[in-house]
Amino acid sequence: PPPRRASCAPICLLPPALAPPEPRPPAERMARTRAAALDLPRVTGLEGRITEILLIPDPILRMEKLAGALGALDGSALEPVRDAYKGVLVEIGDPEIVLFVEWWARFDPEGAFQWTRTNWEANIPSVAASGARAWARIDPMAAYAGVGPLDTQDRPFAPYVVAVVQGWAESGKPGLDEFIAQLPPGHRSRATTVTVRRKIRRDGPVPTIAWAEAAPLEQKLRIYQRLASGLAEVDPEAARAFAEKHVSGPYGKRLPR
């Protein structure tokens, strides 16, 4: 019988113009320093070490090395670290930017957040919100005073308010429920939704229901509605039982019937 021919993958049928390009070598793919483009001298010291890390081709290894390096530094290293970031073409919203903001916020949370508002690579909600969240872990009231006014009516999802609530909850500091209760209506609604859903996923349905039923009377209507919808996503039976228990009561008018 004639010799069998090796099967050809579908890519063999593509004309040359449509075939994917050959993968470029890592050195070329990661040649993204402005210094190299301008033929400037290689940087040294801490700035040079951070620059070398930012140019590691493997993204997971790069983040591992960067986290280790930044974790060992304090605020005195801000200038050389920031200079390293200036010398590398990091894309907007890259995780390296988030990590930098988280590190900076440890010793200057307000400065880190304001930097996200004025630098193109960081001026994206996910990065700015990480700065607000880190700020709230340290001083939640100051964080809300600084970022809350930015969540106006044209930002219905209130990413900064959400970040403050998350950071406050992570800090373990008391007073979050009382803080949410006195927020303006739009912020209060979003903060309640985030808090309830976070509790359901972290504490479970039963403790969250107990927390809701023990809430001050003036907060029950707002909490019950969001609790029923949040429970329905993770435990429909618990959601149904909760709604049936409270639907005819004074705080059940917004519950599903």
Give an overview of the whole structure:
- By secondary structure, the protein is mainly α.
- 62% of the residues lie in helices and 0% in strands.
- The protein is built from 15 helices and no strands.
- The protein has helices spanning 26-29, 34-37, 45-54, 59-71, 78-86, 95-105, 109-118, 125-138, 140-147, 159-171, 176-181, 185-203, 205-213, 217-234, 236-246.
- α9 packs antiparallel against α10, α10 crosses α12 and α12 crosses α13.
- The protein is elongated, with a radius of gyration of 25 Å.
How are the SSEs ordered, and which strands pair?
Layout (H helix, E strand, L loop, with lengths): L25 H4 L4 H4 L7 H10 L4 H13 L6 H9 L8 H11 L3 H10 L6 H14 L1 H8 L11 H13 L4 H6 L3 H19 L1 H9 L3 H18 L1 H11 L11
Would you summarize the structure shown here?
The chain is mostly helical.
